[in-house]
Amino acid sequence: DALAIFQLNVWAHPQSANALDSLADGYLSVGDKENAKQSVERAIALAPDDPALDPAARGSFLSDEKAKLAQSK
Description:
By secondary structure, the protein is mainly α. Helices cover 75% and strands 0% of the residues. The protein is built from 4 helices and no strands. The mean pLDDT is 92.
């Protein structure tokens, strides 16, 4: 059920790096590494322009995403 909510959140907020991060977590929790990887890659691509992330949060977010990307391989 949570995965469906994460998918809906990304649909509603397609430019949100955080929404894609949550979706990646959902995919990882069900063992779907390929979709998790795609979600993390998209989150990384969106993070530099995401106004919800201040500069300090952005750096931490990108570091966490790169670690998650390694985990999804």
